[in-house]
Design brief:
Elements: E1 9-12, H1 19-30, E2 34-36, H2 37-45, H3 49-56, H4 58-73, E3 79-81, H5 90-96, E4 100-104, H6 108-117, H7 132-150, E5 153-155, H8 160-176
Parallel strand pairs: 1-3, 1-4, 2-3, 4-5
Helix pairs in contact: 1-8, 2-4, 3-4, 4-5, 6-7
Length: 177
Amino acid sequence: MPLADDRNIYLIGPRASGKTTLGKRLAERLERPFTDLDAAFCEKYGETIADMVGRDGWDAFRKAEAAILAETAGQTGQVVATGGGVVLLPENRDLLGKGLVFYLQADPERLAERLMADLNEEQRPKLTQLGLREEITATLAEREPLYLACAHASLPERPVDELLEFALRALTAWERE
């Protein structure tokens, strides 16, 4: 089901909200390339996010992430799963606004369950010194207004098949406008 609109489709939301899972499925259905910004970071820099953050700090990672987003945004017709903090920099929010943006909402308790089941600290390093549940709550409180401001549509927490169908219906409706 290809779309005539060749703008990039960006998936934003907190860690473990399902951006990569949905992104792969959506890209397949739309016959578009899929890009995961976290994977692109590892490929470009030859290290994990945790390695860079541990050595240079979160600000250095955010700058590197912004460069990868800018590079990705220079190509059209992709489905892009972003990192959870991509919305923190104004320049990133501007780039996201040039595409179509879905915010994957998730219950903090479900996020904690998913992260506990697959911590993957190399790709999802701790953001604060807080415990996991407290960190999720604090991070969502900071970022949710930014996610909502960037999003063309919010996808409530649902099974991936339902999210996929919701996203496809939204894209079809946008194309008619």
